[in-house]
Design brief:
The chain is an alpha+beta fold and about 90 residues long. Helix content is about 25%, strand content about 40%. A four-stranded antiparallel sheet has the order 2-3-1-4, covered by helices on one side. The longest helix is centred in the C-terminal third of the chain and has 12 residues.
């Protein structure tokens, strides 16, 4: 019987504050590339402050989460933070 390594995944919450509404298409394009790992997402437009807040929950290997958050963080006008589960 062959022993196959099981790739470890983690659950993470990626918080995105969108300070420039014109970048939402770029953000959606990046999120679409990782759609297979995304458990759910919620977007909240806060019109009084002219920002949007997006929460993305993902279950993926550490390197995938880092890649996604890095690509999102490179988009000018987006502020991105990641919170991981302890395990």
């Amino acid at each position: 019987m062959e022993d196959k390594a099981i790739e470890q995944t983690r659950i993470a919450l990626i918080g995105i504050i969108v300070e420039d509404i014109n970048i939402t298409e770029q953000i959606n394009d990046v999120l679409h590339m990782y759609a297979g790992y995304i458990i759910g997402r919620m977007g909240i437009p806060y019109r009084a402050k002219n920002v949007s807040v997006i929460s993305v929950v993902i279950d993926a290997p550490q390197d995938i989460i880092s890649s996604l958050s890095g690509k999102l963080g490179m988009i000018q006008g987006a502020n991105v933070k990641v919170q991981f589960t302890k395990n």
